Amino acid sequence: MKFYESKLSGLCRKFESGLFIRTVLIGLFLHSAYLRAQDPKESSLRLLDSNRFEEVVSANRNLCEKTCGNPETKELVSQMEGTNSAVFCNRLGVAYMGMQDFKRAIAAFKNAIFCDDSSKHHSNLALAYTYDKDHTSAEIHYKKAMDLSSRNPDDSLPKINYSIMLIKKKEYSNSESILRETVTNKDHLFYAELFLGYTLYQQKKFTEALSHYDRGIGLNPNYADLYVYRAYAHFQLNQLTSAEMDLNQAETIRSEGVNPRIHQLRSLIQRRIQGNRR
What we know:
Elements: H1 2-29, H2 43-49, H3 53-66, H4 74-78, H5 86-98, H6 102-115, H7 119-131, H8 135-149, H9 157-168, H10 172-182, H11 189-202, H12 206-219, H13 224-236, H14 240-253, H15 260-277
């Protein structure tokens, strides 16, 4: 049993170093409140969703630099009707985040703020700073984002992003407190349930974590990562059949390629089953 637990602990350490957060990072950015509502044609959305980040950079870099990235055009940009020019820089920043080029992502989100000083752009910038390990700057922009979002009770994504930084700093109880406030927002609820389940899992509250994954799946049954992380909770509770069923469902939803997290957990399940038979 010690062997199994040490293997699982190793996987958890990998998640803490970034695998878990990157799993939901792009999905979080692609939420309607942050990108989709600003992109009616959804061309950039489709490219980002399929990890074609270089194409998004090519399509948006010049548009960002000519508008929000150019101080001489700021007054003109601020008066433009229709699509907010900040969306070009926001898309650019999201693409750079997907490429793990955090320095360029920071620059892009700063340009987005130059055109549109909004909670979503400060929150995105803070998240980029978090991944660049500049927690001081991240804290500044998280607070700014949450201050701006306080005017709109439906905008809870800054709090979810802030919880990501706390998770990366292993401040699970603080992250849990923020996420418990966030789960009252229906639009972003399944993201909050996912992160809340993770913070509880890291505190070894496996049964409670399981209940939040259940709620998240009830809200969005087509989000594969909810099944993957629920499978880990099932595994910890020795509910191996349920864990295997969740992994199968995750593979059905996201059929492209081999997911290493699924493969690793499935191997652990098989070893535990063999150990139980001895």
